Amino acid sequence: AVDIDVFSSLFRKICRQEVTDVIQEVEKIILQGRELSQFTVDFIWYLRNLLMLSTDDHMAEMLDVSAENLIRMQEEAAMTDPETLMRYIRVFSELSGQLRYATQKRVLVEIALIKLCRPQMEEDYDALKNRLHNIEQLNEDLQAALESGSLTVASAGTAGGQPAVKPEKKK
């Protein structure tokens, strides 16, 4: 079995799209002698628990985890939306089926993790939805920064006549 700390660390790195760190996590799992098929099944279950937490506050009562792990998992569930979690579960569920007869399990696991970190590499509907969500989130973050005054819009000297967003200098 893989420790919940490993899943937590891996999930957070996926959310931050840190591909190199995610692949290094796989390396650690392999060096510890963990079976990749079981890791995949367990990670699907972990993602399922995050999905449950992200869809209903009352689901916490149904999960068999310590209070400390529950708090951490609630933080992680808030790091992304349910649709993205469902995409992650679909990618890993497909991977689980592929691993049964695969001779190159590590390669398949690494490809699946890269898909989670880089939805722009896929052209399916779920990946496109995930990319759109990332753009919308960036737009919301920029709007919030503009409204808080931490960013200003300057139109002078920008490429193509488009305004550039520049950090406001503190006086």
Specify the overall morphology.
globular
Mean pLDDT score, rounded? 84
Question: What's the helical proportion of residues?
Answer: 55-70%
Q: What does the radius of gyration come to?
A: 19 Å
End-to-end gap: 54 Å
**Tally of individual helices:** 7
**Which regions are unreliable across 5 or more consecutive residues at pLDDT < 50?**
155-163
Sequence of secondary-structure elements: HHHHHHHEE
Overall number of strands? 2
How much beta, percentage-wise?
under 5%
Give a written overview of the molecule.
The longest helix is centred in the last third of the chain and has 24 residues, at 125-148. The protein has helices spanning 4-15, 19-31, 36-55, 67-77, 82-99, 105-117, 125-148, and strands at residues 151-154, 164-167. It is mainly alpha-helical. A two-stranded antiparallel ribbon has the order 1-2. The chain contains seven helices and two strands. The chain is globular and about 55 Å long. The N and C termini lie far apart (54 Å). Helix 1 (4-15) packs antiparallel against helix 2, helix 1 (4-15) runs parallel beside helix 4 and helix 3 (36-55) packs antiparallel against helix 5.
Write a concise keyword list for the protein shown above.
171 residues; mainly alpha; 7 helices; 5% strand; globular
